[in-house]
Amino acid sequence: MRALPLAAAFAAGTLLASGAALAQTAAPAPTPSPAAPPQAVVIAALKTADGAEAGTVTGYEGPKGMIFRVVGKGWPAGWHAVHLHAVGSCEAPGFTSAGGHVNHAEGARPHGLLNKDGGPDLGDLQNVFAAADGSANADVYLAWEGLDAHESDYVDANGLSFVVHANADDYVSQPIGGAGGRIACGVFEPVVVTAH
């Protein structure tokens, strides 16, 4: 009567052993090659009205939009609107030399990421939060799709600026979503890629 359980145990052990042998001899799955890191295309050094450093913004271009990596310092704590402005100039104290938001030369769109009456314009981005120590770290995304945006809207002889505002953007009201004054500004410059 004991032979049956022992035989069953032996058969099970043989099956497990053969399965383990198969697992050891099977070819390993190919390791996917790591993706190349994104290449920055533009960078802006942010300054406050009194000339103090206020961080950097680095732009990375993808197939359907751009990511702007914001690394802020010395910002007032809380939420801040950030926008792309149509002129590459940041003259203190009010940074009005940066002009208005990037927009189509003809058929300009109204301001606001949540504006259902034709928005957003081409300079609208998401709000960025600054911590109590004045640091801000965020990736904000600008989607080309639906904006009918073209490189010429952003890259022209006037350049391009990144502006930080005193208040949050409500994403709807005109002309700038209640964002308030301009507290920091930086002009985008192309990133020079050096060969290794």
Automatic annotation (TrEMBL):
<dbReference type="GO" id="GO:0006801">
    <property type="term" value="P:superoxide metabolic process"/>
</dbReference>
<protein>
    <submittedName>
        <fullName>Superoxide dismutase family protein</fullName>
    </submittedName>
</protein>
<dbReference type="InterPro" id="IPR036423">
    <property type="entry name" value="SOD-like_Cu/Zn_dom_sf"/>
</dbReference>
<dbReference type="InterPro" id="IPR024134">
    <property type="entry name" value="SOD_Cu/Zn_/chaperone"/>
</dbReference>
<feature type="signal peptide">
    <location>
        <begin position="1"/>
        <end position="23"/>
    </location>
</feature>
<dbReference type="GO" id="GO:0005507">
    <property type="term" value="F:copper ion binding"/>
</dbReference>
<feature type="domain" description="Superoxide dismutase copper/zinc binding">
    <location>
        <begin position="55"/>
        <end position="187"/>
    </location>
</feature>
<dbReference type="InterPro" id="IPR001424">
    <property type="entry name" value="SOD_Cu_Zn_dom"/>
</dbReference>
<keyword id="KW-0732">Signal</keyword>
<comment type="similarity">
    <text>Belongs to the Cu-Zn superoxide dismutase family.</text>
</comment>
<dbReference type="Pfam" id="PF00080">
    <property type="entry name" value="Sod_Cu"/>
</dbReference>
